[in-house]
Amino acid sequence: MTAQEVRLCGLLLREHFGEVVEKVGTQLLRSGAQNLRTIIHETGLSVDLVKKSLMVLVQHGACLFSSGRKGPGSPTEYRSGCDRILRILRYPRYIYTAKTLYGDTGELIIEELLQRGHMTMSGTVKTVADRLTQNMEEGRSMDYSEVSSAFSKLVETHFLQRCPPLAGAGTADSTNPAPGATPATPSTPAAPPTPESFPDCYKVPHMTLVGRGKRQLTAEDGEDQRNAKRQKMDPEAHGDEGIYWQVNFERFHLHFRDQAIISAVANKLDQTSSEIVRTMLRMSEVTTSPAATCTKPLSANEIFRSLPASYNIPRPILDQYLTLLVDDPMEFVGKAGESGGGMYVVNLHRALANLARATLESVVQERFGSRSARIFRLLLRKRHLEQKQVEDFAMIPAKEAKDMLYTLLSQNLVQLQEIPKTPDYAPSRTFYLYTVNQLPTARMLLQNCYKTVANLIERRLFESKESKRLLEKSQRIEAILASLQASGAEPEQLTEVEEMITAPEKQQLDGLRLHINKLDSAENQVDETIFRLESDVNSTATS
Amino acid sequence: MAARGRSRRTLSFSVDSVGINRGESLPPTLQQPTPVFPVMEQKPLPLTGGEEAEYLLALKQDFRGAMRSLPCFIQPAAALRDVERYSDKYHSSEHTDGLMDWTPDWQRFPRELRIHVKKPARDGVSVTRSDAQLAQKKKKKKVREKEEVLLKLETLQKKEEQQSEEDDDNAEQKKKQEDDDADGEEEYDEEEFEEETDYIMSYFDNGEDFGGDSDDNMDEAIY
């Protein structure tokens, strides 16, 4: 939990849940597991506010609670992790992926679940159907069964999973792996069981839900809100009470990883090779575990049969492509045997490491120039080099090479390794070798990325705060315009209202909007880099 | 990096192997922190545009806006203004977050996080929040009162009296509490009656919200 991560998490919590939750969240992140009294004391907020914030955090999976360390009688402890909160940056990407895979229905389902944290299937289906009905033309409405089938498809492909039932609170699952652990070992808290350790994780419950989406009439807004609230409180039982669903981020990450590998192959080689790799990854979706180093071996015959029908390449050409892929220095595909026409695997971890390495190289190139990037790549390939050797291999004059090396060294992208000839490390009798360690450098750049995103968010908040009055005024005018248009006003009235904003103010507003959009899309782009670096760091850590 | 021993110009590392030649001097030492916004030699690349990036941007902004309107966005009531006003007594009850706007499944949360909520009584009394002890006391009172109502007719009046007394107590307690409760939607129509008064809520507008619009570009004088 580095300082940069905590700062970024605090900003994300503030934007999405308000300042109260930000205070409570940062307190949990900074000081580890605490009980309720400590949190109240440290943050200085009122009891009710702290309770409510903790509930919001638990609802969204950002905070876990467990019985205290001193045994079953001690107060419950709450702990929070940076990872879950940092996922908030990636929400737009999840929603967009759901849209490309499952259409608008899938997109709205994922969006609702991300907004609410945990929800039952019936609740989600109803809300999504209502939202879809809002956007359809008059007289048409969305049937619940369509939404339910989209939901089931998402569960089948593991994009959604059930929230794990709590051990001790509510019914205990019969195959709960940790029921005996908690009373037996009061000193060490049992690690919270992952959702996947429950066998029903991906089982769609039998649900009786028949109906169509309801369109909300805008004329009676106030009454409708009360009706909607009353609807929520109606105890309609649909047969799936107590079963809550959440978005399975790991599955989305696997999908992103596959996409990254396929596009890398397409960029490096050509479209057909990327199709072959896509086929291989698709075939091994269910058989590969998330932490696997490489996919299960697939024979060339199987690959040939599973290629999409539009790509009818003859068998020998496929073999040639596979040989090319295996010989490629990026090592995306490896050969695991000769049976069945050749057994091929996709090297997942090596592909991730190569992608991260490419990211590092491009960072150096953009920041320090192409010659420094050449030195960096050289050091990555040759591991340890002396000053003289660097100059020779990189074919850069000595003075400039020295300057660049020192700049890289001062930025900590390159390290100096001393190899003594004598035990007293005398400088005249020691080798000084330059080297690059990929993993610590990747970690350092990852922290830089977190700092970047935090700075972007702060700048955006600063810009909005500066022009707060202007933004409010423009919002008010837009609301007036919308209501006038809805009630059918003449064009003169509309232009009159529009003229309430003067021209320089409009310019200022446009500039402000442009800045905010730029900052937002910059955040999205940095998040892509964060994803690549994070997946490499995590895969290297586990392997 | 200068030698600490004799005053000879030797450095702690060998000069040759690290590549500094005789004639050159070391770069000047820095004696202040590096500048906050250093000049960049290479300009950064422009952002990737395209349909996908724009759609992602729109999704992100929509998501942020939607989160602000959900009940999980907690905002404490705005800090009270500099001087206490008479209308505060009637305005502050509007802002209390009475009912939880989302009814969570209490099974999934630890016991201690339960917030007991007093449901609004039928005569439009404002909703307040209390902690466990008060709720228990009230529950006991209510149970006792219900039994009496079943038996006698006069205790109906007594219950109303007691409830209005409790509301007085609660209103006082609320004012004593320094932290304010969270904002929430109004549970009742604004035009309805506040407790103990016969006036509609707009009677208590103290005119401070009027004229808050921009005063720039006003060609007419203000009288």
UniProtKB/TrEMBL annotation, chain B:
InterPro entries (alphabetical): RNA_pol_III_Rpc31
Superkingdom of the organism of origin: Eukaryota
Keywords for the protein's UniProt record, in alphabetical order: Nucleus
GO biological process, one term: transcription by RNA polymerase III
Ranges for region Disordered: 120-140, 154-223
Compartments where found: Nucleus
GO cellular component terms listed in the entry, alphabetical order: RNA polymerase III complex
Primary residence: nucleus
Amino acid composition bias (Acidic residues), ranges on this chain: 179-198, 206-223
UniProt family annotation: Belongs to the eukaryotic RPC7 RNA polymerase subunit family.
Descriptive protein name: DNA-directed RNA polymerase III subunit RPC7-like
Taxonomic source organism: Acanthochromis polyacanthus
